[in-house]
Design goal:
The complex is a heterodimer of chains A (about 230) and B (about 200). With about 230 residues, chain A is mainly alpha-helical. Chain A has ten helices and one strand, in the order βαααααααααα. Helix content of chain A is about 80%, strand content about 0%. The longest helix of chain A has about 30 residues. Chain B starts with a strand and ends with a strand. Chain B is about 30% helix and about 25% strand. Chain B has two domains: about 130 residues, P-loop containing nucleotide triphosphate hydrolases (Rossmann fold); about 60 residues, no CATH class. Classes of the chains: A mainly alpha (about 230), B alpha/beta (about 200).
Chain lengths: ~230, ~200
C-alpha cells in the first residue's frame, strides 16, 4: 500500500533553502503584506514636509532621523506576519518537529522576511532622502547604515513576534518588547549620518552596525526558536 | 519503539492523567480514546515534544527522548488539528515543503501521492479555494511519501468523506503491517486487526 520508496533524508542546507523558497513564494502570493510596509514608509516620509515645513534647510537637518524612524516603524508593521499564518495553520508545529536545528529554519524565515519587507525600504531610501533634501554626501551613509541596520531590526523583532504569536491581541505588547531593543540601532544609524557630516569616519559606525548585525544573526534566531517553543506549548 | 512511563499532566489545576504507562511497538496501531477534554490531544503533543508541561519519562528505543530528538523527529510524522497547509500555496507546494524537511523527493512522487488522495486536477489550485476535507487530504498525502516510522494522527477523520476514511484506515493498517507504528485519536470504530486502545477516561 505504501506508494513509493522513500527518498534520502534531507541535509539541513536543503531544508533551509526549501523554507526560504516557500516563504518567498508566500510573500509573492500575498502581495499586500509586502506592499503595505513599503507604502507606509513612503507615506510617513512624504507627510513630514507637509506637517513640519517645506523649508529645505530644516528638512535636510531632520531627514536622516525621519527616514530611520519611518524604516523602523515600517519594519515593525510588517513583523507581525512573520509567524502568524504559520501558527494559525499548523505549519509552525511542522517546523518545530523538523529534524533540523530550529535555528536555521527561523533564520531562513527571517531572511526571506527581510528580503521582502526590509530591502525595498532600503533601496528606495535614497529617493526619499532626495525629497527631504538630505545633504548629498550623506546618501551613501544613510543607504549603508540602513542596509546593515534593518536586518538587525528584523532579527530582533522576530524574537518579540515569536513570543507573542500565541496571544490574541498583541499589537502594543509587541511594540513594548521590541522597541527597547531597536533603539541602539536607531541611535547608531542616525548618529552615523550626523557625525559623518561633521567629519567623522563612516567606517567606525559601519563597524558597530556590522557587529550588531553579526551578533543578532548569531543569537536572535536562537532566542526566536526558544520563544516559538514556548508559544506553541 | 516509543514508551512512556509514569506520565503526569495537569492543566489549570485539573489532573488530565497520572501514572500513565504504555508502549508503542513496531506494527502496532494505538487508538487513544476518551471523552472530549480528557487530554488526548495534550498527550499527543507531549509525546511529540510540542508540550513540556508534564512529569514522567518518555523514551525512544529505550533512550530518553530529549537525548536523541533529531532521530526521533526524523522518524515522526505528526498531523494535528491544524493540518499545516498554507492557504495561499497550492497542494503541491505545500507537500513539497512539508516533505522537504524530512526527505528529498521527486515532484513526480508528490504528484502521484496527491492524485492517490484524490486531488488530481487540484495540484495547482491555491488551497483557500479547496474545501476543508481537501485541505486535510493535502496533509494526508504526506503519509504516502514520508519516511517516518511513527505516525501521530490527531482526529484525522473529522473532515473526510466516507471513501477517504476507508482509504486512510487502509493506509494505517498497511503502515502497521509494514513495520510502522500509528498513534491515532478518533471517535470512529477502527476496523483494524491488531488495534490496541488507551483509554484516558
Amino acid at each position: 500500500m505504501k506508494l513509493m520508496t522513500v527518498g534520502n533524508s534531507t541535509p539541513t542546507s536543503a531544508a533551509f533553502l526549501s523554507t526560504l523558497k516557500r516563504d518567498l513564494l508566500i510573500a509573492y502570493r500575498r502581495k499586500n503584506d509586502v506592499v503595505n510596509p513599503f507604502m507606509f514608509f513612503f507615506i510617513v516620509v512624504s507627510l513630514f514636509p507637509i506637517a513640519i515645513s517645506p523649508d529645505a534647510d530644516k528638512l535636510g537637518e531632520i531627514a536622516a532621523g525621519v527616514l530611520w524612524i519611518a524604516a523602523l516603524l515600517a519594519g515593525m508593521l510588517s513583523m507581525d506576519s512573520l509567524f502568524r499564518a504559520d501558527y494559525e495553520d499548523g505549519s509552525l508545529e511542522q517546523l518545530l518537529l523538523s529534524p533540523h536545528p530550529l535555528y536555521f529554519m527561523v533564520l531562513a524565515k527571517n531572511i526571506s522576511h527581510w528580503l521582502v519587507s526590509g530591502l525595498p525600504v532600503v533601496l528606495v531610501s535614497p529617493l526619499l532622502a532626495y525629497m527631504l533634501n538630505l545633504p548629498a554626501e550623506s546618501y551613501m551613509t544613510l543607504f549603508l547604515t540602513l542596509l546593515l541596520g534593518t536586518p538587525v531590526l528584523s532579527l530582533l523583532g522576530s524574537i518579540g513576534v515569536a513570543l507573542t504569536v500565541g496571544l490574541g491581541s498583541r499589537g502594543l505588547i509587541l511594540a513594548v518588547i521590541t522597541l527597547p531593543m531597536n533603539v541602539p540601532v536607531l541611535i547608531t544609524g542616525t548618529l552615523a549620518v550626523q557625525q559623518t557630516l561633521n567629519g567623522a569616519t563612516l567606517a567606525f559606525y559601519l563597524a558597530i552596525l556590522g557587529a550588531m548585525l553579526l551578533a543578532s544573526i548569531a543569537l536572535a534566531p536562537l532566542a526566536s526558536a526558544a520563544a516559538l517553543r514556548i508559544s506553541v506549548n | 519503539m516509543l514508551s512512556a512511563a509514569n506520565l503526569f499532566c495537569e492543566r489549570d489545576d485539573r489532573v488530565l492523567f497520572q501514572g500513565l504507562n504504555f508502549d508503542i511497538e513496531e506494527g502496532q496501531v494505538l487508538q487513544i480514546v476518551g471523552s472530549n477534554g480528557s487530554g488526548k490531544t495534550t498527550l499527543m503533543r507531549i509525546l511529540c515534544g510540542l508540550n513540556d508541561g508534564y512529569k514522567g519519562m518518555i523514551s525512544w528505543y529505550g533512550e530518553e527522548i530529549s537525548e536523541q530528538i533529531e532521530n526521533f523527529y526524523q522518524s515522526l510524522l505528526y498531523i494535528g488539528h491544524r493540518v499545516g497547509v498554507n492557504k495561499v500555496l497550492t497542494p503541491i507546494e505545500n507537500l513539497r515543503w512539508g516533505c522537504s524537511l524530512q526527505a528529498q523527493l521527486e515532484d513526480e512522487q508528490l504528484m502521484e501521492a496527491l492524485s492517490t488522495v484524490g486531488l488530481r486536477g487540484f495540484e495547482e489550485s491555491q488551497c483557500f479555494t479547496l474545501s476543508a476535507g481537501q485541505q486535510q487530504r493535502v496533509s494526508l498525502a504526506k503519509l504516502l511519501v514520508s519516511p517516518a516510522k511513527l505516525w501521530v494522527l490527531d482526529e484525522p477523520f473529522t473532515t473526510l468523506d466516507l471513501r477517504a476514511v476507508q482509504h486512510l484506515e487502509n493506509l494505517v493498517a498497511a503502515h502497521a503491517d509494514a513495520g510502522g507504528a500509528v498513534m491515532i485519536t478518533t471517535h470512529h470504530d477502527l476496523k483494524i486487526t491488531n488495534l490496541s486502545k488507551l483509554d484516558l477516561g
